[in-house]
Amino acid sequence: MPTKNTLRNLLENCLFVWVGLSLILTLAPAQYQFPEIIQVTGRAHPLILHFPIVLLLLGLIFFFLPALQKNPEVKEIGEFTFLFGSNLAGITVIAGLILAREEYEGDALLLHQWAGLGVFLLSVLLYFFRAKKASIKTTLSLILAAGIVLTGHWGANLTHGDDFLLAPLKSEVQDLPTLAEAEVFRDMVNPILEAKCLSCHKEGKIKGELRLDHVEGIQKGGKTGPLFVAGDPEKSILFERIHLPVDDKKHMPPKNKAQLSDEEMMVLQEWIAQGGKFDQKVEDSNPESELFQLASLKFEKNKSYDFEAADQETIQELNNFYRLVTPLYPESPALLVSYYGIAAFDPESLKDLKDVKEQVVEINLNKMPLKEVDLEFLKDFPHLEKLSLNFTDIETKHLQAISEIPNLQDLAVSGNAFGEKDFQALENMTGLRKLFLWQKGISDSQKDQLSKSLETTEIDFGFDGSGITYELNPPSIKQDKVFFSDSLKIEITHPIPSTEIRYTLDGSEPDSLNSLIYTNPVWVNSSGKLRAKVFAEDWKGSNSSVTVYMKAGLSPEEYKLLTDPNEKYKAQGARTVFDKVKGKNNHTSGEWLGYSEKPFDIELKHDKSHKIKSLGLSLLYNESAYIFPPTRVQILALENGKWITLVDDHPKPSEKIEEIRSELLLYPIEDSNFEKIRVTVNPITSLPSWHAGAGARGWVFIDELLIN
Amino acid sequence: MEKEILEQGLNLNRRKFLSRLSLGVGSAALGSLLIPDLFSGKSGAEEAMMAALPHFAPKAKRVIYLFQNGAPSQLESFDYKPLLQKSYGQDLPESIRKGQRLTGMTAGQDRFPLVGSYYDFQQYGESRAWISSLFPHTASIVDDICIVKSMHTEAINHDPALTFFQTGAQVGNRPSMGSWLSYGLGSENSNLPAFCVLLSRGKGNGQGVYSKLWSNGFLDATHQGVQFSNSEDPVLYLKDPESMSRSERRKMLDQIAAMNDLSYKEFNDPAISAKVQQYEMAFRMQTAVPEITDVSKEPDSIVKLYGPDCLVPGTYAANCLLARKLSESGVRFVQLYHQGWDQHGNLPNEMALQAKDVDQASAALITDLKQRGLLDETLVIWGGEFGRTNYCQGNIQVDNYGRDHHPRAFSIWMAGGGVKSGMVYGETDEFGYNIVENPVHVHDFQATVMNLMGIDHEKLIFKHLGRRYRLTDVSGHVIKDLIA
């Protein structure tokens, strides 16, 4: 096969050409500049280099496996592969040597360069001595294989940066300094340079004569001059380059490389603006500056925890409907624990937390009844930083247990009743950063004493309300119904349990001295009006709440309305006022008779065997709907053929708009055998000047007339 | 023979095929070791995303949003403009208005007379923030809050503006902010819903609120806001029917759960197990809700802090107190609405009533959270849906005037939960009409709130009807300056 042999010869010959060329290039003086066309060949180095790596390694496999050697054709393929690889190694070396003159220098380059050259020469040797003793061949092959891998790795380091290969294996959790320790350059600026600039500006690859991998290089600057003008970012080359449009050739980092984020640009800018110092602490920069804000976010809040995360399954098992155990955020090993739902609280369940004692940083047990619970176990939680125990009835022994928690920073114990001993226990907790201690009755001297003992602790004593007096809310009155036949239960309540409720049954204003004190529900057995007020120390007494209750009375034998109610509010006519159904607080409910133009006027005749003791009118008042107290109530009786006046009353007029309410006007009647009774109720004819409808006619609404 | 050769060949192929196949299976198994969730059935980006929430360490765990419905005037509260008082009655210069559209209510006016605040302003706290005399309690906590004077929105009428604030879009049917957070972060307390809503109404001219504002939109119905009312049943349909005991209810739920479990095993529909969870939550809410709504155990200093109104169910003060109790119990998002802030006329009078309703209780909420050590982890927001014009609507008098809707600049405040305290952010021009410094768009505001909750607003997405949705739609920038 002549062609094959010709090709082989040609390739073998070429090998020597490459050896020669590469030796020349290695020895050529450093100043020598190549023509541009040759530079292009040099830049092809990163492209070509992959071929020799693959072909040489493949060829080595053919050499190594004796089984393959047995078949002459296969053997030949192997030899050809290796020959091709060797040739390409030569070309790669030459290209590399040309490229190296452009912008690379340093130890890393030398290592790569000599290793590359070595690999090439070794491959040539191995090729020509392939038929020699197997032991020599094996040794050489092994050295060559190792050489290829190492050369490639060193070359990659030149382009991608040191440790590019193994970086993902390294722990991602870095030991971030605290805000107090952090330095502007070391911890904020340098990491940006390392991530975004160093791959081209460092020992071994000093583009633009700029090195950013040591302080001197940064101070010195590059080809175009110093990198920055301290204190003046806008005059600095660094600032100019990073802000040029991305398509600009001079924009840094170059278009196809990872770009700086806004935040990173801000850091660089602020660093220059603040003088471009290399030893400045973050804390020394202006706290209002963005740099500081960013730093405080990075170093303080996102504090990283370096302990092992707990087992995912353990965490899952700890979660249930009364307890939440959750990482600070998904990748964080730190755990937060919260208990919710007093009803489901089981003190024993606290012990389960021991499984994650290393990881727990926050526990919230607010409102859980802890009085009888032993908190000793918390001292084994080395990373517990925040403990919330508001309203938990804890005492001295608990505080002593808490003081043994090694790393506790924030403690919330508001709403517990601490005494002198408890304060002493608190005074020992000097490691606290924040203490929330809002509770009733802490004296000023106690506050002072504690603040002195815990100098570095921020203590919040909360709001105790002393010195402020508000009016209490009126009490609420509950009764099942307004009409009753025998007796009725009335309950009075107030949401503040410490208040005293006083009431009257005669319609007068209750006072805090003489009126009846409410303890148990009140039973009433005749119509009337209950007024109640509440009083409490440090408070102004409330307004009174009023309720009416009506003993269902007699039904008259005959009755007749002398005037018709308004068309819209005629309900069931006259029957309405004797149906013993209390109307709802709504005049349109169809249970009320409404009068505006005319007075309500009724005449009735009753069974003479019952003596009338009183007459009651159940009315609705609602000033905003023009429903006012009547101006005049007259009750006349026909006795011996003559009408006499029993009652002529002018109820108290309204003075302001009040809530919609029910009112009972109750008139005692000196008895007798009246033949007939007539009741007239006059609505207000002209609303008072303070009302929005001043001058208009008002209304009277009545739903019941009670005869007792 | 030939047949045997053929068969042998086939066998060989089969063997080869199977052995190759085993390689494939092996590599798939290896892959599954590397990607644990590969075969767990939770497919899709959504599940992957849910597992990764919050996206970073949150600063706030919970939000209480005190929404001032109807749009309180910034010019009588936090944006002090002495020029308006000096130029009383003069026309708003066209150079300031720059063609801003008008609502139908003032479009017919031939003049736009400037009117200044009837109420005096003073500087308070270390931040020296200007606050009007209507908000004395807020002034007392000024160093705990961050006033943003440069909010702006896109809508000019109540409904779209409210909907925009709550859902990130002016049209309805999108999930509310609370729903998004419930979806993203879930509930802390599994005995209560993650998103609760409380309504109150002031004496001023009011605008309605409606349940679409706390709707779950296209998210699962479990993320809907649960409204607490001031009636005897704070949460509707929660009580057992009369004469049913709790143990009977328990038995019934167990039976239903057993049946649901059967059909879950048959159909594998996740909605079935979700339903079981909901029944269970409702059962537990039966004890959790009365615990929350009972105010009788609050010390009386708390009543003094919030003001006695907090004992009257349904008032803003009572809702603030309830909001604290809910939030303290792990409710992720408590949304209050206080109606009555729409002062087109009679502003000085109505605004005073409205401010009286909310000032003390809003400030009390901050103090109360603080004294319990909760303010650091709870974000409180106070504000309306837009601002009000610097010119008068209707008849103008020094002590009686009105203001129309103004979307270009208004003020809100935020506190706690990782927000900078004692700061005033943004500035408007001396007419209080346009923003001149640090504008904050509604989407920026939403992005910032989500950031504080540990969520990247661009990553919390939900695919619906073929496109991906998020609270901030296609815009929004986190305002880093607001974050402590």
TrEMBL record, chain A:
<feature type="transmembrane region" description="Helical">
    <location>
        <begin position="80"/>
        <end position="99"/>
    </location>
</feature>
<keyword id="KW-0812">Transmembrane</keyword>
<feature type="transmembrane region" description="Helical">
    <location>
        <begin position="111"/>
        <end position="129"/>
    </location>
</feature>
<dbReference type="Pfam" id="PF07635">
    <property type="entry name" value="PSCyt1"/>
</dbReference>
<dbReference type="Pfam" id="PF09990">
    <property type="entry name" value="DUF2231"/>
</dbReference>
<protein>
    <submittedName>
        <fullName>Uncharacterized membrane protein</fullName>
    </submittedName>
</protein>
<feature type="domain" description="Cytochrome c">
    <location>
        <begin position="176"/>
        <end position="276"/>
    </location>
</feature>
<dbReference type="Pfam" id="PF13287">
    <property type="entry name" value="Fn3_assoc"/>
</dbReference>
<dbReference type="InterPro" id="IPR032675">
    <property type="entry name" value="LRR_dom_sf"/>
</dbReference>
<dbReference type="InterPro" id="IPR011429">
    <property type="entry name" value="Cyt_c_Planctomycete-type"/>
</dbReference>
<dbReference type="InterPro" id="IPR026876">
    <property type="entry name" value="Fn3_assoc_repeat"/>
</dbReference>
<dbReference type="GO" id="GO:0009055">
    <property type="term" value="F:electron transfer activity"/>
</dbReference>
<dbReference type="GO" id="GO:0046872">
    <property type="term" value="F:metal ion binding"/>
</dbReference>
<dbReference type="InterPro" id="IPR009056">
    <property type="entry name" value="Cyt_c-like_dom"/>
</dbReference>
<feature type="transmembrane region" description="Helical">
    <location>
        <begin position="136"/>
        <end position="156"/>
    </location>
</feature>
<keyword id="KW-0408">Iron</keyword>
<keyword id="KW-0472">Membrane</keyword>
<keyword id="KW-1133">Transmembrane helix</keyword>
<keyword id="KW-0479">Metal-binding</keyword>
<dbReference type="InterPro" id="IPR019251">
    <property type="entry name" value="DUF2231_TM"/>
</dbReference>
<dbReference type="GO" id="GO:0020037">
    <property type="term" value="F:heme binding"/>
</dbReference>
<feature type="transmembrane region" description="Helical">
    <location>
        <begin position="46"/>
        <end position="68"/>
    </location>
</feature>
Automatic annotation (TrEMBL), chain B:
<dbReference type="InterPro" id="IPR006311">
    <property type="entry name" value="TAT_signal"/>
</dbReference>
<dbReference type="InterPro" id="IPR017850">
    <property type="entry name" value="Alkaline_phosphatase_core_sf"/>
</dbReference>
<dbReference type="InterPro" id="IPR010869">
    <property type="entry name" value="DUF1501"/>
</dbReference>
<dbReference type="Pfam" id="PF07394">
    <property type="entry name" value="DUF1501"/>
</dbReference>
<dbReference type="InterPro" id="IPR019546">
    <property type="entry name" value="TAT_signal_bac_arc"/>
</dbReference>
<protein>
    <submittedName>
        <fullName>Tat (Twin-arginine translocation) pathway signal sequence</fullName>
    </submittedName>
</protein>
